[in-house]
Every structure is written in C-alpha cells, then in structure tokens.
Design a protein that fits this description.
Two copies of one chain form a homodimer.
Chain A lengths: L13 H14 L12 H8 L3 H13 L3 E4 L3 E4 L18 H13 L4 E2 L12 H9 L5 H4 L9 H13 L9 E4 L2 H12 L5 E6 L3 H9 L3 E8 L2 E2 L1 H11 L3 E4 L13 H14 L2 E5 L24 E6 L11 E4 L5 H9 L7 H12 L2 H27 L5 E2 L7 E7 L6 H8 L2 E2 L1 E2 L10 E7 L5 H21 L11
Parallel strand pairs in A: 3-14, 5-6, 5-8, 8-9, 9-10
Antiparallel strand pairs in A: 1-2, 4-11, 6-7, 10-11, 12-13, 13-16, 15-16
Amino acid sequence: MLDLTINRDSKPPLYRQIAEQIKTQISNGRLPANSRLPTVRGLARSLGVTRLTVQNAYAELQADGWVEATVGRGTFVSTAVQQMSLQPTIGQYLTPDSAINDMLAINQVIGVRSMAMAHADPSLFPMDAFWQQMAQLRLEANQLFSYGPIQGDAALRVAIAALLHEDGMATSPDDILVTSGAMQSISLAAQAICQPGDMVLVEQPTFLGVLNVLKAQELRPLHLPIQSHGPNLDQMEQLIKTHRPRCFYTVANYHNPTGITTSAAKRQAILQLAQKYNLLIIEDDIYGKLSFAGPPPSSYKQQDDDDRVLYLSSFSKVLMPGLRVGYLIMPPAWRDQLLTLRRATDLCGTGLLQRALAHFLQDGGLKKHLRRVLPIYQERRDALLNGLQRWMPTAVRWSEPQGGFSCWLSLPRCAPPGVLYHQALQNGFAFTPGEAYMLEESNQEYLRLCFGNLSTEGIEAGVKLLGMLIQKQLATGQTHGDWLPYV
Amino acid sequence: MLDLTINRDSKPPLYRQIAEQIKTQISNGRLPANSRLPTVRGLARSLGVTRLTVQNAYAELQADGWVEATVGRGTFVSTAVQQMSLQPTIGQYLTPDSAINDMLAINQVIGVRSMAMAHADPSLFPMDAFWQQMAQLRLEANQLFSYGPIQGDAALRVAIAALLHEDGMATSPDDILVTSGAMQSISLAAQAICQPGDMVLVEQPTFLGVLNVLKAQELRPLHLPIQSHGPNLDQMEQLIKTHRPRCFYTVANYHNPTGITTSAAKRQAILQLAQKYNLLIIEDDIYGKLSFAGPPPSSYKQQDDDDRVLYLSSFSKVLMPGLRVGYLIMPPAWRDQLLTLRRATDLCGTGLLQRALAHFLQDGGLKKHLRRVLPIYQERRDALLNGLQRWMPTAVRWSEPQGGFSCWLSLPRCAPPGVLYHQALQNGFAFTPGEAYMLEESNQEYLRLCFGNLSTEGIEAGVKLLGMLIQKQLATGQTHGDWLPYV
C-alpha cells in the first residue's frame, strides 16, 4: 500500500494532497513505470476519505499523463514516465545551448516537476477564446494562408500599437515589425545595428537566448553584473569607456533569470550614459505585463528622445509561445535595414495566427486573461518565497520578483558544478543550473527557479526537496574560500 | 452601356467571358471605382443571354472583390479597386528587394491581374481538409501552443521523411530540420556553411530571395548563366577555378524565374565538378512536385554519396505559403551548427500548424491535392504558351516550363528599364520585371510570367495586352545594338 499522509487542516484540497504525494513518489522513482496503484476503494478506506476524493486525485494524475487507467485492470504509473537516468543527454553540459535544449527536453518528460523554464502554464492558456477567434476566420482562410505582408498583419499591428499606447509609448502601426517571437526580434535588432566583432553589453546573468544570438552573429558579450535594483552604474560606465560596446541588451522588468526590476532612477541614469557614449539600447520587455504589484517603472522607450531604443516584446509569456508572435518598434533610422533582414530571414509569419490574435486583442482578450492569471502566478510566487523561507538553510539567498516567472538563488559552492542539478533531476525535480549563465566557475552556486508552470503544491514539494539536498550538501561538502551572495 | 462581346463557340462559359471582360475594363481604368454596372436584366437583354448568366458573372466579380452589390441600389465597381497610379511605391525601383515588395503589394491590390508572383492559387488551397485537421487538434491545443521542439514537430518530421523516401531520398526523421519556409532553410544553410566574404555560385537569373540572403550575410554571388537544359558547364568550371566559391545554390527543377529544368546529364556533371573542387550544393527543390510531365530527373541529394548536398524544400508552393513550413535535410557534418543557428534565430515554429500538416500528409492529403491541381496548373501553362504563340511578335522568345509556376521571356530592348513594366501596371496587369534579376543593363529585356495564380481567361487577357504593348514598343522604339535571346 502507498505511504501517504493527509492533513485535513491544510489548504490544498485532499485530492490534490494525494495527487501531489503520488507525483513525488513517481518523480523520485519509488513508484516506477507500470507500478499498479491501489484501487480507489482500497485507498479511500485506508486514508479514511471518500471514494470521490481518490477518484479526483487519480483523474488529475491521468490528465497530466502520470498514470494510465484501464477498465477492469486498474490504474498504473504511465509507461511514459521516464526516469532521468534514461535521459543521458540531459544535464550533460552546462552551456547556454545545452541548458536551453535541456529545458525543452525536460518539458516533454512526464514524471518530472520542472521549474526550469520561464514559461507560462499551458493549462492556463486562454484557448477557448483564442480558438473561437480562429474558427471565425474560416471564410478568410484562403487569403490568410497566402503570403502575408513582411511587416506583419495590419490589423495586428494596429492592435499592438494600441497596447503600446496604454503603456505610454506613442507609436504608429507602421513603426511596428511583427516577428516570430522575441528571439527573432533580438536577432534582427542585433544584426541590423551591429557588425561582426562588435561588443554588446549584457546584464550578467542574462537571457541565455541572447548569448546564442551573439555567438551566431560573431558579436562579443560584455558582462555587466546586475544588483538588486539593476546594473551597477559605475561598472557600466567603466565598461563602456573601456570597450565601447555598440549597444546594451537589457531585460529591465522582472529580469530573466534573476527576477530583478531595474529601478526608475537607474533607468534614467542608464539613458544618460547611453546618450553620453552614443550607446544603443535593445529593450526586451517580454515580462513587463506580468506584474504583481502595479505597473513597472517607465520603459526606456517611453523616455527615448533620440531614437536610440529598439523596444521589443512578445506574446509568448503573457499568452502562448506557440503563437510565435513577437514585435519590435522600428526606429526610423533602422527601419529599412530591419525590413530587409526580415525579408532575408523567413519572409513573413503565419497569417491565420496573427489575424486571430489581432481579433483576440481587439476584443480585450489579453486584459481579461491577465486579470485571471496574474493572481494565480502571484500565488505561485508566494508559495515559492514561503517555501524558500521554510526549507532553505540560512546560507542561501534569493531574489523577490515582483512579476515575471524567474527567481534567482545563490549559495556557497560546496560541490562541483552540476552535482546539485543532477541530484535534483534524479529525484524528479528540475531547475536551471546557474553555470549556464556564468562565464567562469566561482565560489558561488546559482540556480534559477521558475514558478509560472507548476502548482503551488508542486512548488512546495520541489522547494522542500531542493532544501534538503542543499542542506545535505552544505553539511557534508567543503565550501571553497569566501563567497558573496549574488542577490 | 458596357461594350462587351460574347462568343458562343469559344470554350469559357459565357458568364466567365463577361466577368473577364469587365475585369479588363476595371483593370485598365475604363471602369473606375464606384462606376455603376448595368442591371442584370438590362445587360442580359443587350447581350442576348439569360439573367442567370449575368448573375453568375456579377457573383464571381463580387467574390473576388472587384465589385460590390447593394440591395436596391445596384452593382458598383468596388471602392477597393486601386488604380496603380495610387500606388506610387510600386515599381519605383527594380532591385531584388523592391521587386519582392512589389509582388507582395500587388497581391493585395484589387483591380490588377497579376502574373508577378510564383505562387499557388489561393482559391485552390485544400482548405476544407486542412481546416478539419486543425479542428481535430482542439484537445491537444494547449500543448501545441507551448514551446515546441527546435527541430520541428516529430510527427511532421516522420511524414516528411516518408515523402522524401518516395522521391528516392533515404533520410531519417532525425535528419530533418523543419523551418519557417524555404527562405529560412536557405538562410540557415548559407549561414552554417559560409563565412562572410565567401562567394556563392548561383544561376543567373536566380530566385530573388537568395540574393537578399547573400547580401544580408555579406556573401558574394557569383553568377552562372543558365541555358535551356541548365547551367553552362564550361563556364561553371571556369568560375569555380577562378573564384573558388564555397557552394552552389541551385533550383534544378522548374527553376525560378526561368522554368528551366536541369537535365540529368548536367546534374551528374555538376556533381562531379562539385566533388572535384570540393563545392557544397544547396539544392532548393521547392517546385519539384509541381510536375506536368512525369517526375523530374533524380535530385542531387539522391546521388549525394559524400554528404555535400544540403537539400531543402517547402510546402509553400505545393500547398499553402501561410503554413510557413519548409524543411532541410541536415548532413551530419552541419547538423549541430544548423540546430544552433535555428535556436539563435527564432527558436521554433508553430506547433498547431505543424501537427495539422503532419496529419494532413499522413492522410494522403498532399497526393490528393496534387492530383486535383496539377491538371489545372498545366492548363494555365498551356493557356500561357498558346497566348504567347498568338500575341507575341516574332522577336520574343520564351521558355517552355514542364512544371512549377514560372515562364521567362526575352525580347530586344527598345525602351529604358521599367517602361514596359509601368505600362502594363497602368493597364492593370503585373509581371516581374527582369531587371530585378540582372546584374547590369543589357540589350535584352527580360520578364517573368507566373501562371499559377490566374485563370486561363485572365492569362489570355494579360498576354494579349502584353503582346500589344510589346508590339507597339518594338514598332516605335529603338533597339540598341545586337541582342541574344536568353532562352
């Protein structure tokens, strides 16, 4: 019989307590694939709960693919559940490239609770409303499946301009380039304004994707440490003076991977530095609308008097990444070059999804969606911070994100890089190892925990496990020299 | 009253004869926007046809957006009909970049018959079958709108590998990279194998998009004239010896823009040259399945013993460009680099459309579609060749494409570049001006006529107009020196 405990006084409903404990046992291998679960009647009796409660727990496990039920035979742990030992490629390297691959691969593995990817929860996607918009386009479909305009669907550009107006950015639909996601915006922006060999100032740590873009374009990253209110300004000026970078790539709101928001004062100072040294700014605002505590400070673009800011965002985090729709405000000086590069990259996006998105936005679908999901994401953030408070040894530090999906942990290094990551994976829990973000080994160990795509109960279970692993490591491992908390 | 003539002995049904003549008068400005058409009853009486015939003609014009009907007021030429004089940006320049822009812009203009774009006919898209496949994915939609695999949907890669097997290319789903159309395949392939400054051998003329890719990546095109059975081999070897290009980009089947197919013998000789001089080949087979007279000669990839061919194709021409789905067979040596570049470009494609396409292919939808549309495209090709035979002065030469969408004309130059193009546009007819494809002004004038996206009647009307414009030009203009027909 399963070894489960239930707590009638705690907040999660009984069926979720049961489901989450079974997930934990599947994750850590105590219930391997094909294990038979107790009968509904048997488990209900032994736990002293109703059969409906157990049925609900099993139904949730089944919906997520963790178990399979066969009429007359019973309920079994899914054959799709893969122990991480069967995934030898995951965690093999700790480079940016491998880390992104791992995140995507782990996303497909059933039997792992993942906080590895800064990702909205697919079960919260506004699919009914969006699907309805698509369905209504049947009569226009032949046109929408033809070649579309390079700059993107006109109706969508109108809707995006309206969104930007609300955020204080006066821009015309004709200034907007619709892209296949923020990655493409970054790639096009960098290619438009830089020459191979140029240096690009980035926060350290920064979005792994941008490091891939720079490498592919033979641009050189120049790393600017980020602190609790944004980049260190003295270091920034020093780096600019010494290396003369072409531009500064920044995620000022709910930064990935740290969750930090650059303060209004720092933004002003940074804009002044940019003007002083003629630095362009690529402002990636992909998380800006995922705010738990009122809107973030004014964007660089809002204060951009001399067209030095290339502002970009996307619907991947606020709606659904599978739309592959991002956008970029084209400053007049770079407009032709950006359109030329887009034409030489993939010509245009998918008309059907762009038009459906346009109608979804026009109908207020985004606002409605955010009203629904932001409280849920905030609750998950709270579950994470509470869990960290409860389970982490005192040596561990973490950021307190006011939006977005990312939280950044630092602790004294007392095991070689990757050990903690692999231990967690073996126990069915995934995070993003900090090594992927860092240039060189250091005395600190960092890790990113993303709270967007896991239930509060899953977050609690994961943080508890992680806390115990870290505790053990700190107790038995050797710390190497001094260390400084990063955040 | 309208000046229309009908011919009861000719093939097109009477209603189409009426509709096409009205289109001609709208195109050339004799019926400007907001003109009132005769009543159904009045026109039927004056032409001696049934009212149903006129109703059908008006219904077709309305469906295409050329006219609008208001109950009680009558039928009017649509306000959406735009005289080309209102589109001052079209035809302003004759560069590759502008030509592509023009094609896309003209595509949106109601009131122009366009043979400018090598494009399937949207009214022939297999939309019912495809839409049904999409509709059946509702339950998987949340997963399909998440981040997808970088390499593309697994089911789609299996279906593509099966397609390639039928064409004699033994490839595994794991060798396939799904891209956002052939443009992205070309862009990634070139970036993977070339360094800035490298020379790339291309046919002259060649696909305009590839010239944009080369320019964006600072690669240098090396132009190899194409003849009636493919590139000139002696010139090819000479160019290779002198300039040592890194690779050869080729459209061997139903070449764009000339419609020429490289013969089997030339393919073998070219592969030998490639081996001799260690030249890589980027084989763009986007038109290969659009064959009117049996399959084309074996692809380079089929005969590629030493992995020097990067084979790519797409569903844009055989199905619908709005899918934005192309594919590339990754040779082992370039696999990692191609995946890395894709990751740094736009991460992944749209899961919904990729999965729906996978199911469409699995159900035999592509074969069924081609059985339906190839006879129609062949009929249009025939209408074009017959029209050219009938309306062109003897000095004009043209290719005889056995597939694809492109036909290439050459004639003695007797007017400055762009004059013929603008004259045709003013009369509501669009082609692609050859200047966009050529490096320098020459004594010949070239133009591309694409027959995929216009009815046989529209093609006849367009070619007749073009023939008269050319006749007039040859009669009044000065030819400059000698000229050689290009094909």
